[in-house]
Known about the structure:
Double Clp-N motif; single chain
Amino acid sequence: MFDKFSDEAIKVIMHAQEEARILKHKYVGPEHLLLGVVASDAGCVPQDHFSLSRFNLKSLREAVAKVHKKGTKASPKELPFDKDAQAVLLRSYENSKHNVIYANHIFMALLNAPDFENGFAMRVLKELNIELNNVRLPVTYQTCFGQSPIIIDGFEITQEEAKELCRDVSKIIFYAMDETRRLKQNFVGTEMILLGLLIAKGSVAGVLEGFGITLSETRNLIEKLIGPGSEMLMVEVPFTPRARKLLKIAQEEANKMGAESLDTRHLLLGFTHEQDGVAWQVLREKGVDLTALRESVLALFEETR
């Protein structure tokens, strides 16, 4: 596996091992990989994002030392990786469709690990008063618009595809994937994109709320419609054909309007085209008239002219 790791990825691993040794820990865990990513200075962490102002090596070291106390004896010469760190490295390997794995693949695999929120690394973020999504979102955005394509929980976003998305739509896609993980589903459906629009708030969410589509009620209704999630989650979680069709329709709406890129208003316009699917079940359940919804979305465009 390690033969596919680039020099910068190997550097992350070496720094993680060194950080574990400094703390006299008996193994390398996700919290050490977190330190390794920052210590490697591979450019994975956006420097201009306000929510990451405390996401620096000094602060992280102090936080790790608080949540994972320093050992009393020197670390073993051969430091093993614990099962969670091994899973992160395996995930970065499996999620890469390149010949080489870079530091950003390790970082994304770490932030999206199923057990991340239950481990030391999450406690480190809490110690720094940093919300997980405030790390995931700017890192995801930077990586998507970086030099190489990646897989984010099975959804491949290439540099070419990223050019078609404005930052707000990137957020919606991220939130949709996050809801998919939360509900333990093995696919990203149209209902997850609908939830993403509501989570992002803003004018588009305001239109939906005007039709009685609120986040809490929609979440509850979707959970009833799709049923309990799976305990066996796939490594790659694809978008459903209907979700991909929705994105295609939204792009067609943007093209008709001569827009340079797809934005959240075009995405909501996509929902005004009748389809089968959970999202439309929600809209029908709430008595939403799609023609009236379309008119309300088009009014948003008029407001910005």
